[in-house]
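Incident log, support desk, overnight shift.

02:14 A customer reports that sequence design results differ from what the structure should imply. Their input is reproduced verbatim below. On-call engineer (initials T.W.) acknowledged and began investigating.
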């Protein structure tokens, strides 16, 4: 077990940390949360989890091994750095650079460039033979200023959001304006906690945004939709990313033609451009949840998005599901999504 810290994206107050913990739980990594700070989660866990998080997470930006954490005061930071076991993290002949990230404008009196220089000088004085290399360093020492605290360590992995930008709905072969963004789709898959090789069902698959993200993670997928055009287009998108689904079928989500799946992740239709077969979104959600309960094993999870006004959390509880958590995501003035996670007990 090692002390690790993760710099999270700042686009939502609760989803990034919940996604990170969901990945750890899905992959069976024992862990203990040490402290949750704005955009930073400090965790004690097996360092091997970092590779998995880097390959799965949508809302984690940097993974690092923690050397120390202290108050965001330059004198205290330098004192801690001077007594930290730096020799255990960088060899004598290695090159390094120090980078400091400020979260949400905290600690404005601290000059980041000055702090980086001071920490660099401490490392140079403490570890013989090391050199600074600003362009291609062997080691990156990384610090985060967040809510009167400073967390410092070595960067193990950095996750670029570029891939999600490249998979935006309008860049796929088949497009529909109601398609969910790739980053949100990936996060929802992680909240459902499937392992590689397990089977995920999206009963309202549409353009296959959720199925694409799950398939890229090595999860087997099956999709349903009431419109043939969506099934054809969704399959086109899956094949474009090299994903072969277990099945794609034109079907009513209230009567799913499946007998057993490991989890369900979905974004039911709502809004002017969506088709709900003459039913309200609430009726569609209720009918789907009532039926998919029977195809899930005990402990199987459902993650679904719907307008806040539908109150999907309450619907799930009424049907006997354990309501694990809801996150509310503002989209625009007339739409706030509720992303709810349920578990079959």
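02:41 Re-run completed on a clean worker. Output:
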């Amino acid at each position: 077990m090692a002390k690790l810290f993760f710099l999270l994206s700042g686009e939502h107050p609760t989803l990034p940390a919940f996604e990170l913990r969901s990945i750890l739980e899905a992959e069976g990594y024992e862990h203990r949360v040490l402290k949750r700070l704005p955009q930073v989660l400090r965790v004690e866990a097996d360092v091997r989890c970092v590779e998995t998080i880097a390959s799965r997470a949508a809302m984690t930006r940097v993974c690092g091994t923690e050397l120390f954490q202290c108050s965001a005061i330059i004198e205290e930071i330098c004192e801690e750095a001077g007594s930290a076991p730096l020799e255990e993290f960088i060899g004598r002949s290695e090159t390094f650079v120090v980078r400091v990230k400020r979260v949400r404008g905290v600690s404005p009196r601290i000059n980041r460039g000055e702090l980086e220089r001071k920490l660099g000088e401490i490392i140079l004085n403490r570890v013989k033979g090391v050199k600074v290399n600003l362009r291609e360093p062997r080691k990156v020492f990384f610090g985060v200023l967040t809510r009167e605290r400073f967390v410092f360590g070595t960067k193990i992995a950095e996750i670029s959001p570029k891939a999600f930008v490249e998979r935006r709905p309008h860049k796929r072969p088949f497009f529909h304006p109601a398609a969910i963004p790739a980053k949100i789709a990936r996060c929802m898959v992680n909240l459902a906690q499937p392992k590689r090789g397990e089977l995920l069902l999206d009963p309202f698959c549409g353009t296959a945004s959720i199925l694409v993200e799950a398939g890229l993670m090595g999860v087997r997928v099956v999709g349903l939709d009431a419109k043939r055009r969506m099934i054809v287009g969704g399959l086109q998108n899956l094949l474009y990313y090299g994903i072969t689904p277990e099945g794609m079928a034109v079907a009513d989500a209230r009567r799913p033609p499946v007998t057993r799946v490991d989890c369900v992740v979905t974004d039911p239709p709502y809004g002017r451009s969506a088709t709900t077969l003459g039913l309200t979104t609430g009726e569609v959600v209720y009918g789907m949840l009532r039926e998919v309960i029977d195809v899930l094993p005990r402990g199987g999870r459902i993650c679904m998005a719907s307008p806040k006004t539908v109150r999907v959390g309450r619907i799930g509880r009424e049907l006997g599901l354990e309501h694990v958590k809801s996150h509310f995501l503002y989209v625009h003035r007339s739409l706030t999504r509720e992303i709810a996670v349920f578990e079959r007990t």
